[in-house]
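Students often ask what a 'structure token' actually looks like in practice. Rather than answer in the abstract, let us consider PEP/pyruvate-binding domain-containing protein, a protein of 983 residues. Its sequence is given first.
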Amino acid sequence: MNPGAFASHDPHFKIFHELMKFRVQEILLVSSPYDAYILEEDGSMASRIINEYHGLNLSRPPRITRTANAEQALELLRQQHFDLVVTMAHLNGMAGCEFAVKIREICPQIPVILLTHSVRDAINQTDFFQKPCFDNSYTWCCDSSIMLALVKNAEDQRNVDHDTEKAMVRVILLVEDSPLHRSILLPMLYEELVQQTLAVLDEGLNEQHRLLKMRARPKILTAASYEEAIALFSRYRPYIFSVMSDGRFPKNGEESDTAGFELLNEIRARVPDLPLLMLSSESGNREIAHKIPAVFIEKIPRSMGEELHNFFIHHLGFGDFIFRTPKGREVGRASTLYEFEQQLSTVPEESLLYHARCNHFSNWVMARAEVSLAARIHKDQLKEIKGCAAARCDLIAKVRSLRESRQQGVMTRFSTKDFDPEVTEFTRIGRGSVGGKARGIAFMASELHQARYKQAVFAENTVKIPQTCVIAASGFIDFINLNKLHADEQLTDKKIEQRFLAGTLPDWLLKDLRAYLEHIHYPLSVRSSSLLEDARYRPYAGLYHTCMLKNNATDFNERLDQLVYAVKRVYASTWFESPRAYSHSIGQTRVDAMAVIIQQAVGRPYGKFFYPAISGVAQSYNYYPLDPMQAEDGIVHLATGFGKTVVEGEQSLRFCPAYPRHMPQFSTVEDILNNAQRHFYCLPYHQKADPISSLIMRQLEEAENEEAIQFLSSTYIPEEHRIRDSRVPGPKVLTFVPILKYNFYPLAALLKEVLTLGREGMGCEVEVEFAVDLADDPAKSTFYFLQIRPIVVGNEMEQLHITAEEKETAFLASQDALGYGRHDSMQDIVFVPPNSFDRTKTRSYAQIIGRINRVLHQQERPFLLIGPGRWGSADHWLGIPVQWRDISGVGAIVELQNEGVRAEASQGSHFFQNITSLGIPYLMVREEDKHDRIDWDWLLAQHKKSEQGGVCHVRLEQPFTVKVDGKSNEAVGFVQDGEAAEK
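Now compare that with the structural description of the same chain:
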């Protein structure tokens, strides 16, 4: 991905994309065959460099081009680009310094590094007391890590000016004149620096952001003399993180035994709180270092690495922050920013002021690549603030603000050490894919965060995702393997669930769930996020299990058991019959895997029940627009209580975000009384209820006195046959007029922008599930984004001409059809005759249709399905409540609207989305429309394959055609050839 493009989606990390612009990608290595042999003695140099990079989690290792002599090297430099030249001391036909000069003539800016076998070689090649021919010189110590060090050091020297100015990146100054010691020290420093920086980066960050922040690690600059060291220190003084110096090196053109002491003493005088380190082969310098004061490390190879590690941990802030009193007594400890914030609120005043005055806070934060916060802490020295209480609050506020901003719009890695649900918006447990649903939530979380800076309606209102944790697919895979489970299509859903519930979660997953739940004390929704879910042409909508948890038991282990139970139920649904049937329908042969979303349930307690005041589904494309609406204006299905009402196709209110006051369902008083939502779903919140219960249905009149219902309802006045938009005594009717008519809360404006955001972000039409937690002051309510999925709109807009003859001979005609194309492969029709339709038997109809479907599906015979009312509705009074497994072989569907059953098409249901995504024609036939028709006499006269329980199955002798014009929404069904003539 283009870093610039990613940055536009990631404001907190944008600055990191701009760091380390110069990278060494092409190295020209000039060495004699003998030197090449020595370098390759322990294996390929290139391979070892790659291993070094990967071992330190660094990206893009450079490529090495090797040449045997200087002339060939110069010719290569003329022909192609290189970022770095590394030359050995002994070259045929040209001295090292002469070669370096010629390189400068061709490429003035390219760094040239001398790599020798001994210090003597380096001395022969350059005069240390004059400007050297080479940018730096190193001694080969049979350790390939020197190559990484010299590459990184070349990058640091080129990038330091830009990165310090742009992001206040810190600088470590190493003063060492010996190529041998420099060759030993520099690899050790880089390895320690990279490993420690990775170790202390916020564990909650995702891997991409951790790698980005690595770009802000301190730079290492080297100096070989007192004058060079002072010059570098003065130039980068605001950014100097530490100075590490040898005891003896040149000063005033002559080697000085006291140069190290004088340098560190001078720097201590200028910056009293700077961490200083003296590195010396002379143990007598230990006392001298203590006088400065500076830490002393003797150059003894066997112990130097460990002592450098301790210096990084205890003096440069890479270890725990240990809160101490001025006398050295430990009073607190923090290893993460989360713990740091907690400790700041409790440590004694004397400890707080001591660390502030010594600049310890700034150093510790800077080690974590939080350059902006470190700079602000350093600038606002607490000793300059009057009163420790104010200083403490200010510091805590700064740290918390940073933690909040770092987490928003980002899917972080779950950390048992510093998980904080008040700050963390979206976290992930485990490895692998998070599935389609979770991926959509994470994407929109990022988009919504960006939108706050661009759209006023987002800036002025609280728009967010609920606190979300996703168990990645590795949890499912490890669970399956641990319990030796395997997919078996012969097992019933009940048997599959029993086997899964008897299984045991992996230890690592159980440990993380325990740590997660310790922080969570609100109701939870445990939902599916399969790898195949919510894709553009295969949404798998509503096919998997969802569990609602009250999560309010007093016993923690009881709460944990309930969460584990819910996770295993979602896992089990991966192999249920409906998802399998849908996979067969779309030709999906891949075995699905399941991630699980554990999400804060949106809402608040109303008495003994918990529910959101508003929930719904919004679509950016309206399949059935009515004047003045346009299809692109979108449509919203709105309900009170949990969104089950909408996604299962029950009675809800429809409105267009562009015209929120235009509600065709509510045209007259009779329309309002007939079409208004009568019941809603909520979570029983009292202790005696089943802790893992499904949502329960409540009638509206049961909740008339609850605040949400009162606010969103109008009142029916029977004596006047009027509906008043006020809280007067009388039966309540859910009209949502305070929101849609009086705009007490800008729901329509928010949905309009959310749909635009989703459409532009996903590059197609979208469907969004949402909920609103209504505050006492409606204007301060919170809009929660719950889910996004693409919806299919494409060929529907193409024209397919339907002839007059086809209309005349049609047994089926609709002026309100979805889909596109000519479908010629069906011979079977399954239907429920309207004259025998009984609403009390709709569940029985669904079972019979399911049995017929299984036979036809196995025979690969698609069929036309016709019946009264809304197909797939969970409310059996509105239509036949088939599930996907009951109609998985269907070729086209007809929904009949007549006096007996009037239910408007529910575009927001999961069932509807699965149908349209597969391109299955969906025809609405209204008996009162003279252009719509079904020839029942002809249909009932056909040969019946079966007739049972009010469901008929007929098979024609030859195929019939269903033809849909996607542009005009017109469709016909007619019999082909000879059968048409007979009709």
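One point worth highlighting: The longest helix spans residues 145-167. Ask yourself how you might have guessed this from the sequence alone, and why that guess would often be unreliable.
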